[in-house]
Every structure is written in structure tokens, then in C-alpha cells.
Write a structure and sequence with these properties.
single chain; mainly beta; Immunoglobulin-like; 8-stranded antiparallel β-barrel; 5-stranded mixed beta sheet; 56% strand
Length: 317
């Protein structure tokens, strides 16, 4: 066989093997991770508020993958998952996995890695957050604090350099439900439990300012009423579910977190937390409110403890 022909055959075989290897590598890395919650979030240690990362695993056809193994890992910064630096979760029917037990334990920048595997395929993503020790006076992060976090320099200089490009008000309805599970222990030691479903209905308003460097600042105000649905031995009745505070992030990662606790002189302490994660697109803010309620103390018949949490989709125009 002529030397030139042998060389051509060898090159053809090598190219075929390379193409086959590339196809195998492409199939193995075909998973896509979409960050649903947590990117760009600001965690507040004093208020014990943290935005746990939520990701969705998709295949090469952009369809959710259930049963994928997801590993979350703290790559940079001070945080843990119930005391551990890593957490392994299996995606649900919607292809989603949540980093449960996520707890920031020190201020500064955070990087959380997420890797997914399914039937030999892999995918990876990195989620960036910021943790601060405390809020500004009045609750929530002040625009100056948010500017300092986002810009990495003196807050006054950042605000002076980057003028506000626009300011708009968005509003939309809140319509959801929360289930409160309560356990009461009497002075004699006997215990009783009850569950109560509360409707949460009202309005959420965001005053949003977009800055020239891509940041957004502003304020979120929620005005809602809780009302017990159906019969229950808990006897919640009606009450307010109102929280307000400053927002921050970017147009694609608008975040908010705040907490309110009833006065300490009351026999029954109630703590309400509210977090928002959403994005601005074509003049509409779409996202979700995460509402939580924890109570403990004396309720007249004994010592009561209970909690509940819910996520409510909202659209603001």
C-alpha cells in the first residue's frame, strides 16, 4: 500500500475516533442547570433570613429531569447546610432541587456550586450571593448598603457615579394559603395539636429604580390579611400579614427579605418572615413571595409552638 494512502487511512480513522469521543463527551455533559432562586440574593444574619438556592435540571431538549442527583457545595464564603459544606438532593417531578438547611454564618461574598448527574450526563452551575450581619435602621437594607455591596466601594461614591436611569411603581395581587401546625402542652404535661389553613390575600407593591450600572434599588410593601378557612380548633381568626423594606440586586435578580416579631411583652410571640425573588421583563415583574410564620409562648391553656411556610407566585405591572 502506498505510503500516502496509508497516511490518509490513519488520519480518517483518527478523525472518526475523535468525532465519536466528542459525541460521547457531549452526551455526558448534556444536562443544563437553571437557577430558580438564590442568584444575587442578600442574606441578613441578624434577622436569620437566607435565600436557599433552588435549581432546575433540564435535558438537551430543555425539559425538566426528575430523579437527577444534585450536589450543592459551598465553594467560597461562610455558610453551611445544617453544619455541612455539601448537600446531596434528588430532583423532584418538576426537575427541581432545593438546598435545604442553607445557613450563612459570616458576612461577605458567597459562591455555591451545584452539580447534577443523571444516566451518565452531567451539568454544573455556580450561584453567587452576599451576606451581611445586620440591616439598616428601620428594617431592610438601605439603598446605601445595597450600593456598597453591589459596587464594592464607598456607597456614596457609587450612588454619585451611577445616576438613576428610571423609577417606576409596580403592583399586583397576593392570593395564597398557608397551613399552620400548632402543638399545645398543658401545665399537666398533656399535649394537643391542630392544623389551620389561612388564606393570605392583599397587594404587593414595588417601587423600583434602575441604575446605569445594572443595579436596581427601591422598596417593597406588602399589605395582606390572613383569614382562617373552614373549621379548626386553632382559632386563628383574622390578622394582618404586612411587611415592608428595601430591595436590591439587578433587573433579572430582584431580591427582598425582612422579618417582624411581635413585642416581647406579649405571652405569645409571633415572628413573620417575607422574602421575594423575581425579575423584570418587558415592563412586568414576575416572581414569588415566600411567607413564613413561627409562634411560641403562652396561649391561655398552655405552652404553644407552631410554624408554617408557603410560596405565592406574584405578577406586578
Amino acid at each position: 500500500m502506498p505510503t500516502r494512502r496509508r497516511i490518509c487511512i490513519v488520519i480518517s480513522v483518527a478523525l472518526a475516533a475523535l468525532a465519536s469521543a466528542e459525541q460521547r463527551m457531549s452526551a455526558q455533559g448534556a444536562l443544563k442547570i437553571v437557577v430558580i432562586e438564590g442568584e444575587g440574593a442578600v442574606n441578613i444574619i441578624q434577622q436569620k433570613t437566607a435565600v436557599a438556592p433552588v435549581i432546575e435540571v433540564r435535558d438537551r431538549n430543555d425539559q425538566p429531569v426528575s430523579g437527577a442527583i444534585v450536589k450543592f457545595a459551598i465553594q467560597k464564603g461562610k455558610a453551611s447546610f445544617d453544619g455541612a459544606r455539601t448537600l446531596t438532593v434528588t430532583t423532584n417531578a418538576a426537575g427541581r432541587a432545593t438546598a435545604t438547611g442553607f445557613t450563612p454564618i459570616g458576612s461577605g461574598a458567597l459562591k455555591i456550586g451545584a452539580t447534577a448527574t443523571f444516566q451518565g450526563q452531567t451539568g454544573a452551575a455556580t450561584i453567587a450571593q452576599t451576606t451581611v450581619m445586620t440591616t439598616a435602621a428601620g428594617g431592610g437594607l438601605s439603598p446605601l448598603a445595597i450600593a456598597a455591596i453591589a459596587g464594592g466601594s464607598a456607597a456614596g461614591a457609587v450612588l454619585a457615579k451611577n445616576a438613576v436611569a428610571s423609577g417606576r411603581t409596580f403592583s399586583g395581587p397576593i392570593d395564597g394559603q398557608i397551613v399552620m401546625n400548632i402543638v399545645t402542652v398543658s401545665a399537666a404535661g398533656s399535649s394537643a395539636s391542630c392544623a389551620s389553613t389561612l388564606s393570605i390575600r392583599g397587594t404587593v407593591t414595588i417601587q423600583l429604580k434602575e441604575h446605569g450600572d445594572g443595579r436596581v434599588t427601591g422598596r417593597l410593601d406588602s399589605t395582606a390579611v390572613e383569614a382562617e378557612i373552614g373549621s379548626s380548633s386553632c382559632g386563628f381568626g383574622t390578622g394582618n400579614a404586612n411587611l415592608s423594606g428595601d430591595i436590591g440586586g439587578t433587573a433579572q435578580n430582584i431580591s427582598f427579605a425582612n422579618q417582624a416579631t411581635s413585642p416581647s411583652n406579649l405571652p405569645l410571640m409571633v415572628t413573620i418572615t417575607l422574602a421575594f425573588a423575581g425579575a423584570l421583563d418587558n415592563g412586568v415583574i414576575s416572581g414569588a413571595l415566600t411567607y413564613g410564620k413561627v409562634l411560641s409562648g403562652q396561649n391561655g391553656t398552655g405552652t404553644a409552638t407552631g410554624s408554617g411556610t408557603t410560596t405565592i407566585p406574584v405578577t406586578l405591572r
